[in-house]
């Protein structure tokens, strides 16, 4: 299957992220829309450590559409399980638009889901080995053969960043479910 990356959007956000919905409301709407559309989803999470999959799994009957997820902190897992190319990691690092795109396609292929989402970034407290600042994250969503990838920036401590990252992923996912 060939994936067409229709657009790349870059958003910058601050710590005081004003979501119009809380994470549980987002999860409920995501699961409801997936059920209505008879679509399935799988997630590949790095910097959120499974937080997004956990939140989605709290919705009753999420198992009808949520196939599963993988926490993929290490480059080896990204390569061996999600088929991220070694050259992508060497040339762009694991915290990059390119890696997020390959992670999303990899999890979609692994789980055979209609929709797949990935997130990679730096939760801190300090910079990563490649000098990426804490708060930088990339989210990629694939729906069938269309893909969108987003860069987002936040500030806060590690726990705050993981929560902000998870809300950003859920909002991005919901928007892509509606538009892709």
Please give a structural write-up.
The protein has a six-stranded mixed β-sheet with strand order 1-6-5-4-2-3, sandwiched between helices. The chain starts with a strand and ends with a helix. Helix 2 links the parallel strand 2 (41-45) and strand 3 (66-71). Helix 1 (23-36) packs parallel to helix 6. It is built from six helices and six strands, in the order βαβαβαααβββα. With 180 residues, it is α/β, with parallel strands linked by helices. Helices cover 39% and strands 23% of the residues. The protein has one domain (4-179): Alpha-Beta Complex (Maf protein).
- Derived from helix and strand composition plus strand pairing, the structural class reads alpha/beta
SSE series: EHEHEHHHEEEH
* Number of E-type strands: 6
Average pLDDT, rounded to a whole number, is 91
* Name given to the CATH architecture: Alpha-Beta Complex
Large-scale geometry: globular
Number of domains: 1
Low-confidence regions? 6-17
Distance between the termini: 17 Å
In CATH terms, the superfamily is: CinA-like
The main β sheet shows up as:
6 strands, mixed
Count of alpha and pi helical runs = 6
Beta-strand residue percentage: 15-25%
Fraction in helix? 25-40%
Radius of gyration over C-alpha positions, nearest whole angstrom? 15 Å
**Regarding CATH, which class?**
Alpha Beta
Question: What is the CATH T-level topology?
Answer: Maf protein
Q: Record the strand order, biggest sheet.
A: 1-6-5-4-2-3
């Amino acid at each position: 299957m060939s994936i067409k990356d229709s657009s790349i959007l870059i958003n910058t956000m601050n710590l005081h992220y004003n979501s119009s919905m809380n994470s549980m409301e987002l999860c409920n709407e995501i699961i409801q829309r997936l059920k209505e559309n008879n679509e399935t989803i799988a997630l590949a999470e790095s910097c959120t450590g499974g937080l997004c999959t956990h939140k989605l799994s709290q919705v009753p009957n999420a198992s009808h559409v949520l196939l599963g997820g993988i926490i993929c902190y290490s480059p080896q897992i990204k390569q061996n399980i999600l088929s991220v190319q070694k050259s992508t990691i060497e040339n762009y690092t694991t915290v990059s638009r390119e890696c997020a795109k390959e992670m999303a396609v990899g999890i979609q292929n692994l789980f055979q889901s209609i929709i797949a989402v990935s997130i990679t970034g730096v939760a801190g407290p300090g910079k990563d080995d490649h000098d990426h600042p804490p708060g930088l994250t990339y989210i990629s969503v694939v729906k069938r053969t269309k893909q969108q990838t987003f860069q987002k920036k936040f500030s806060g401590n590690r726990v705050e960043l993981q929560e902000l990252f998870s809300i950003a992923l859920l909002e991005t996912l919901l928007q892509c479910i509606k538009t892709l």
